[in-house]
Amino acid sequence: MDNNREHWGSKIGFILAAAGSAIGLGNIWRFPYLVGENGGAAFIILYLLCVVLVGLPLVIAEILIGRTAQKNPVGSFRELSNHNPFWVGVGVLGVLTGLMILSYYNVVAGWSLGYVVESARGSFQHIGDPEKAGILFDQLSASWTWSLFFSACFMMFTIGIIYFGVIQGIEKASKIMLPILFLLIILLVIRGVTLEGARAGICYLTKPDFSAINGKTALLAFGQVFFSLSLGMGALLTYGSYMTKNEKIVSSAVSVVVLNTSVSLLAGFMIFPPLLALGMKPAQGPSLIFNILPVMFNSIPGGYFFRIIFFLLLSMAALTSTISLLEVITAFVVDEFRLSRKKASVILGGIVFLLGVPSALSAGRLENFTILKLTFFQLVDFISANIFLPLGGIFIALFVGWFWGMKKAIPNLLEGSVALPGFIVTIWSILIRFVAPVLILLIFLNSLGII
Ligand code: TRP
């Protein structure tokens, strides 16, 4: 093992950091609006099915590649494939995808930070309906000074953590923020489900109506699994590369997936009971939390504080995710070009911020600049999340299942957990070799309109 490589300071270090990466805007912003637009409980069941059949096996595979090779995504694929240029290319695709996702994710993270400040200033105190909140959201996000200021602040926080490295930066930040995040979300769930009329929301989330399920919902559920678990671009691989060989991969992966899934479900229970109790509609689209929540809190006792807490929660969740994205790119540059971590994190963070400027301006000045009918923001989001992530997922499954192969994968998986029951290994190999690649391919072709 490379003795110079930093490793997690404790066994729980990896789990917290990886769960921090997974838990983010995807759970609190994206999941609830997808549930709201696609039929509530039925969508949730479909999502859970995708998590178990494709998400978990791929999480295990990604961590395994990283822990075995002890390198960044490009270096790991290079080493395990014996310098095969195709697989090196897969690693490069991962790093590029990370760059793209971080560039626009940081913009949304900046908005949530901006909303903490606006909430504290009382900007939403007198807004009575979601439409007015929507107008305010449009105004704020269209103001380039507002949105660039907060996204620049957010990137500085992200750089500040990556600068200090694996133990002092990522692990410490996750150890502090993740428990607070859980606490805040539970507080908000309790607040939500104890409101008068909360029952409608609870029913909405627990009584499935399967007629709402179709090809499109399956596709959305699938995409959400990739995005939410930080799968398909080497983030888990990179975090796995800081694991030592005496840690258990499967049980760590299960913990990460369970933590991530519970936050998504909790986010549902935080948002829908108050939403329906106040007679608002669940199908609001991507602006759901930015339009509805500021208003919702106005009709709740203690709303001023709960609103600040909510956007603080959102910002912290986003921060443990942005650090995982910047870490992938930083690890690549540090390993491959021998630049120091400190220099690399500052330079790369700056570059990614600049790449995000057109995305930030997509809500305002560049609103009418579209490619294929999508704004710059939507285009980067579509290509990276809906094309590159599933593509990366297929390659990871094919690499572990067929190219590198089970003969090498299984002994490496068992290292650190000799007591892993044989049937689990068998189920995992079937899922990773057959089920995951075939399902991803079908969904992928479907999304491109080919089948
Ligand atoms: N999973 C995070 C979320 O749900 C976002 C994220 C972080 C991500 N790292 C990633 C998404 C890597 C895809 C790939 O908000």
Summarize it.
By secondary structure, the protein is an all-alpha fold. The protein is 76% helix and 1% strand.
Helix content: over 70%
**Major beta sheet, strand line-up:** 1-2
Which term fits the overall shape? globular
Distance between the termini: 46 Å
Number of beta strands: 2
Rg result: 21 Å
Helix count, DSSP H or I runs of 4 or more residues: 18
The low-confidence runs, each spanning 5 or more residues with pLDDT under 50, are none
Strand content: under 5%
Structural class: mainly alpha
| Sheet with most strands | 2 strands, antiparallel
What's the average pLDDT? 92
Order of helices and strands: HHHHHHHHHHHHHHHEEHHH
Which features would summarize this protein structure in a list?
single chain; 451 residues; mainly alpha; two-stranded antiparallel sheet; 18 helices; 2 strands; 1% strand; globular; binds tryptophan
Can you walk through the features of this model?
- It is built from 18 helices and two strands.
- The chain is mainly alpha-helical and 451 residues long.
- The protein has a domain of 313 residues.
- Strands 1-2 form a two-stranded antiparallel sheet.
- A hairpin with a 2-residue loop joins strand 1 and strand 2.
- Helix 5 crosses helix 15 and helix 7 packs across helix 8.
- It is globular, with a radius of gyration of 21 Å.
- 53% of the residues are buried.
- The structure holds tryptophan.
- The site of tryptophan has 16 residues, from helix 1, helix 2, helix 10 and helix 14.
